[in-house]
Specification:
There is one protein chain. The radius of gyration is 23 Å and the shape is elongated. Helix content is 74%, strand content 2%. It has two domains: 2-125, no CATH class; 130-227. The model has no long low-confidence stretch (mean pLDDT 80). Strands 1-2 form a two-stranded parallel sheet. It has eleven helices and two strands.
């Protein structure tokens, strides 16, 4: 009886893993539907049931393209997180609306919040281009502040703002946490001097809301970085 249970357990996980790989291979051609969660499920199933299939999956093109980075870094990009959250949230909302059952709806609401909590706070956000993005954002903010408050031109900032910008660049380039960077305001090891911290905060506090008008795409990325910090 025990052998039968183990065989059934193994067969079930193998079947679910193969189904997940098949769905992942198909949906990669469908815009908006993420492949990563299906491959994660397949890897979990194969790890539970078959070392041979687990090794096979790790050598496939799908795994190397969509999953190897996550397994290596234990993190996802903001784009991956948003795509998974969008699809999962849509399915939950549709289920909530179409199924008229109080207990089911309560469960859906709980799963909705647990799902978003897990992706926002538990899975790290991988940002391979964070150095360039941080420097680009601070440059736009300081430039905007200087143009509007010190009457400087785009290519000719005042000496005070140039010094602040160069200091911010230096701090960013030497940050040991840059690829998995939290928001600087939440960093446990702040590296700005007290005076420079006051100046950069004042600049960003003024420029932040105005970035939505002058540089909306960069502003939205900045907001997402703070959410997923």
């Amino acid at each position: 009886m025990e052998k039968v249970k183990k065989r059934l357990y193994k067969t079930t996980f193998i079947a679910l893993g193969l189904l997940s790989v098949s769905i992942g291979a198909i949906v990669r051609f469908v815009p908006g539907i993420p492949t990563t969660p299906f491959l994660l499920l397949a890897l979990y199933c194969f790890n539970k049931s078959s070392d041979r299939l687990s090794l096979w999956l790790k050598n496939t093109y799908l795994y190397k393209k969509y999953l190897a980075e996550y397994v290596s870094n234990r993190a996802m990009s903001i784009k991956q997180k948003l795509s998974i959250q969008l699809i999962a949230s849509t399915m939950m909302v549709i289920s909530f609306i179409t199924i008229d059952n109080l207990i089911f709806r309560v469960i859906m609401v709980m799963l909705f919040f647990i799902h978003h909590y897990f992706f926002i706070f538990r899975i790290k956000t991988y940002r391979p281009d964070m150095l360039a993005q941080k420097k680009g954002t601070v440059h736009k903010m300081v430039s905007l502040y200087c143009r509007k408050n010190h009457q400087a031109s785009v290519d000719n900032l005042c000496t005070e703002c140039v010094g602040l910008l160069e200091y911010a660049y230096l701090r960013t380039e030497s940050c040991p946490y840059i690829e998995s960077k939290t928001s600087c305001s939440r960093c446990k090891t702040p590296c700005y001097s007290q005076e420079m911290r006051k100046r950069i905060r004042a600049t960003m506090r003024w420029a932040g809301p105005r970035m939505l008008l002058y540089h909306p795409v960069l502003a939205i990325k900045y907001i997402l970085d703070k959410v997923y910090a």
